[in-house]
Amino acid sequence: MELRAEAGTILGEHPARGIPRPPLMSRLAELPLEDLVRWVFWMAVLVVLVAIGTYLAGKLRSKALQQEPTVAELLIKFRELHSRGVLSDAEFRTIKTTLTAQLQGELKDNGEKG
Length: 114
Hints:
Blueprint: H1 2-11, H2 23-30, H3 33-67, H4 71-83, H5 89-110
C-alpha cells in the first residue's frame, strides 16, 4: 500500500485523493506562492523577448528585401558595364539570358505580360 502511495505521487496523482494530475500541474501546485509568481514573471519576460525578437527580425528582413535592386535595374547596370568594355559579349549574353528569365518569371507572378 505504501508503494502505491509513493508511485502515485511520482506519477502525478494527488497524494490525499488519488486523483491523477498532470505532472507539471502537480509540481506547480507544490511551489510556494513566491516561487510561482517568480516563475510566471520570467515566463512573461521570455514571451515578450521572443515577440520583440520576431518583430525586429521581420523589420530587418523587409529592409533587406527593399534594398535589393530589381532585375530591370541589374540589367541596366550590366548593359552599361558591357558598353564600357568591362564585360565581354559572352559574359553579357549569359547575364542577360539569366536576368531576362528572372524578369519574365517576376512578370508572370505579377500577372503582367512581358
